[in-house]
Amino acid sequence: MQDLTHLQRLEAESIQIIREVAAECDNPVMLYSIGKDSAVMLHLAMKAFYPSKPPFPLMHVDTTWKFKEMITFRDNIAKDLGLDLIVHINEEGVAQGVGPFTHGSALHTDIMKTQSLKTALDKYGFDAAFGGARRDEEKSRAKERVFSFRTAQHRWDPKNQRPELWNLYNAKKAKGESIRVFPISNWTELDIWQYIYLQKIPIVPLYYSGVRPVVERDGTLIMVDDDRMPLHEGEKPMMKSVRFRTLGCYPLTGAIESEASTLLEIIQEMLLTTTSERQGRVIDHDSVASMEKKKQEGYF
Amino acid sequence: MAHKSDLIAEDIAGYLHSQEHKSLLRFITCGSVDDGKSTLIGRLLYESKLIFEDQLAALEADSKKVGTQGQGIDFALLVDGLAAEREQGITIDVAYRFFSTDVRKFIVADTPGHEQYTRNMATGASTAQLAIVMIDARKGVLTQTRRHSYIVSLLGIKHVVLCINKMDLVDFSEEVFRSIEEDYRAFAEPLGITDIVAIPVSALEGDNVTEASQRMEWYHGSTLMGHLETVKVDDELRAKAFRMPVQWVNRPNLDFRGFSGFISSGTVRPGDRVKALPSAKESTVARIVTYDGDLMEAAAGQSVTITLADEIDISRGDVICTADHPAEVADQFEAKIIWMSDEEMLPGRPYLMKMGTRSASVQIASPKYKVNVNTMEQLAAKTLELNEIGVCNIAVDRDVAFEPYQDDNAMGGFILIDRMTNNTVGMGMIDFALRRASNIHWQAIAVDKHARAELKQQRGCVLWFTGLSGSGKSTIANLVEKRLHSMGRHTYTLDGDNVRHGLNKDLGFTDADRVENIRRVSEVSRLMVDAGLITMVSFISPFRAERRMARDMLDEGEFMEIYVDTPIEVAETRDPKGLYKKARRGEIKNFTGIDSPYEPPEQAEIRIDTVDMTAERAADSIIAYLTASGYLGSV
Q1: Hey, are the CB atoms on A51 and B252 less than 8 Å from each other?
Q2: Which end of chain B has fewer CB atoms < 10 Å from its terminal CB, N or C?
């Protein structure tokens, strides 16, 4: 028998983590963000319990500003896999007309994502939530545990994390407290793409190059995904061959010009590119420690 | 990710195929801030071309702003994480870094070298297959080198790279290098570290990191990267006997019953005879089921689901082993324990233990000795404090399958969880099982109030309900007791009226008798708390001084004053026993609220407004308070 490859080891480790949560937590949920990392996490969950289905629902915290193609993809995946999908929208925010154009990216993200997520977790009483974050994404994540403890107020205290030894995870918590679990902590962006390629995991078509209407703002290409996008004077959407390296709210996600229309071409482009993945996310530009702050406040 | 490989541009499919067979190495770096550890890791990341241009631009800017290398790049900044530690200029926790070459992916646990070293280093080392021990060539083997190496050996890491850094500052001297290597071997080999490879480097200037140094021609070994890429660490586990702790029983329907788990050692094939522990029931492997189809063989490091030929009872926490070479089963052990909590270890107190997939209750005896990690000296100890390492006997409340930790990390390593706070407070490594004949002699474990309360998984306390007659004290106290009882808690209620029928029937209502009444009730409630009970006292107790007397008899945190706040008008309309009417008619003298004052508490722990709140809600809020304050441990 051949030695296990790094992807086989990562896969086995992630499956072990996902099963531990199912075995030790009362009411887990998998946060599904529709992106490539979520796609891999979901695939691993399907593997972990086969021939059973994962014993927990998926939940998407919908800011109502996601790309239309993401929503179609999300609904199809849940149907194809036969899984329960909870879509949570902060209706209060919708009623107040909160959006990135009117309220700015920071406030929009806080209300429609961070606060909405907390409300959803409280509403359903979930005591554990899987997330697809990776430690290689960002410096503060490098130190987060696989089982990351949250207070009843959903706060993360980076100075007071439980030690995490071997593959023995402590899932004990008091009522009201919860755990965020990151089963793909040890995967890198390259691992994710390689795994998607080898396992033929479906991903949102927006990752592939296509001719799409975009406008250029502050050096970032923003796709005009619907007519809620106010155009500046003299601004006219141009049809360009673009794709996305990361997916989020369409007004906050920069496209890159690309002709990569197959998975192999995407991976090739990623390997030859010289800028990091998160550069396309408008939200990270604030300050170096911004993600750490957001996490303390309850951003995933 | 700027890999400068032409293959990527020309034949991406070929390139990916070549990357499919990469192996994985997890290692830890040990050293202090000054040894250049962060610089070394930063350089490994940099040299493996994993730094993007935007990150590099940020690094160059940061280097100028806060770096320690003048105008040069400060690689250490690449591995700095949290804001707090950037301010302090030191790492404060365990951080994981990733890099990859064409043959291996690496996961690096980076741990700090300051006072939290033991806890953090042990955490990082627990998943590492290899350790890099950093030494400053100018300083040689230091106390901290010994400390790091001891922890490395304790955690069972067999492979060490002795990275002798800052060779540029000792004129690349072979003599200095050899003498440090010799010192180190003399010290580390007796610890059981068998594979030691010494490499002279300059992390700052790059010598022997990825490129062979031109300035140390006397050195003929591998570069650091070369060694990390080729060192053989895998599959010592595969050669061992088959073990799989059961994580989850997989029952999608009545026709399928599988056991899902992560194979911790050995290999398994359909047809293999297996034994489930601790039950020792045997069966034969029918199928190895995975999402990608059944396997003909599975090995250590894989997550699978196994079905058996016979219906035997197996549940989470059991271990499936090869039948002819099963693991041992015992309930008492000698183990090394590393304490990781600010609160010291309490011998005799039950902790929750998690080993493999088994959770069980465990009691730890007073340490046989603790180890001074700087000198390896064995010292007498009554307990273990944060970052202390000791050897203790432990007793588990049931039989568990195990192997000595040094033979099998997965079957001999455990964590300890505090039942009250749910925190991970320690880690342990089993040395061997104790024979029944040498059962643990529990040294001077006093059965005191903590021990009694621990057994009940609660903290004994008094809930002192004070308020006017008719305020609802007894109603609420009874509801609280019912809830606690249904939660499996041990309780008792002392009610003013009932006590006066028995214990205090000789007392009247003079001031002296009132004080004696409260004194006796306080003494009884103190005995109840000593017995570990959650005790409800429902007494009008109108005077602050007498409530103060009761409070003073108990320890800090054991007395909770609950002010059942009902206005006299409301209480008088309720008048469940007709007492107010009698008092108004002058038939009862010294009646609280009528002709005797009630002194409301100034700092009650809980105040209940019975006008706005039903008795049920009041009881809920008291239970919530007890839970939040840690009086009710998890069961």
Answers
A1: yes
A2: C
